[in-house]
Specification:
The chain is built from six helices and three strands. The chain has about 140 residues and is mainly alpha-helical. It starts with a helix and ends with a helix. This is HTH hxlR-type domain-containing protein.
Length: about 140
């Protein structure tokens, strides 16, 4: 590999990884982060990565006691974004199943990378938090 080629593909530390044309553009990131940055969407994606789930199966599998209403809102938003498909079977009561779309499955690789990063950096983050808390404990007590 030539030096010139390496310079082109190796990120320069002083240059940002993502550059938006205008501040209002936000590089299309805001919509995605709003959806995936909420409390429940990533849990739904992770659970559906294992396969099709009925509503109650999905609700029981998600940690943190998600309410029926919140799960309904979350899967509707993910369905609207094309991440999840919803299939209703004409039974009494209706049986509803959720499944990741092809795009939803492609998202699982990013979620796994984020989880791997989190696990790898957990000790450093814990140490950093402890150091910060110790350094700021007096100012927090005065608030």
């Amino acid at each position: 590999m030539s030096v010139g080629h390496t310079a082109v593909t190796t990120p320069v530390p002083d240059e940002p990884v993502i550059v938006c044309e205008t501040p209002q553009d936000e590089c299309g990131v805001r919509d995605v982060l709003d959806r995936l940055g909420d409390k429940w969407s990533v849990y739904v994606v992770v659970e559906l990565a294992s396969g099709i789930r009925r509503f109650k199966e999905l609700q029981r599998a998600i940690p943190g006691n998600i309410s029926q209403r919140m799960l309904t809102l979350t899967v509707r938003r993910l369905e609207r974004d094309g991440v999840v498909t919803r299939t209703v079977y004409p039974t009494v009561p209706p049986q509803v199943e959720y499944e990741l779309t092809e795009m939803g499955h492609s998202l699982t690789h990013l979620v796994k990378a984020l989880a791997d990063w989190s696990i790898a950096h957990r000790p450093f983050i814990a140490a950093s938090r402890a150091a910060w808390d110790a350094a700021h404990s007096e100012s927090a007590a005065g608030d």
